[in-house]
């Protein structure tokens, strides 16, 4: 399994959905809260993204809670 990183912010309902989805799938991930760490916020900004949740799975960048994109990134052979 590729390294999974989820950029989040406080009180973000879509961030909670993404984290819950990944947990339900048994997928470990690193959470990077952009409100708690300015470096994480800068990383998101440097990618040209202005919103969270942003999930990085290998070469895939997934904005928001998009099950189709998650399934594609998590099951590339399917």
TrEMBL record:
Protein name, per record: Glutaredoxin
Domain Glutaredoxin residue range list: 4-60
Entry's Gene Ontology BP terms: cell redox homeostasis
Gene3D superfamilies the record matches: Glutaredoxin (3.40.30.10)
Membrane-spanning residues: none
InterPro entries assigned: GLR_AS, Glutaredoxin, Grx-like_ET, Thioredoxin-like_sf, Thioredoxin_CS
GO molecular function, one term: electron transfer activity
SUPFAM superfamilies: Thioredoxin-like
PANTHER family documented for this protein: GLUTAREDOXIN, GLUTAREDOXIN-LIKE PROTEIN NRDH
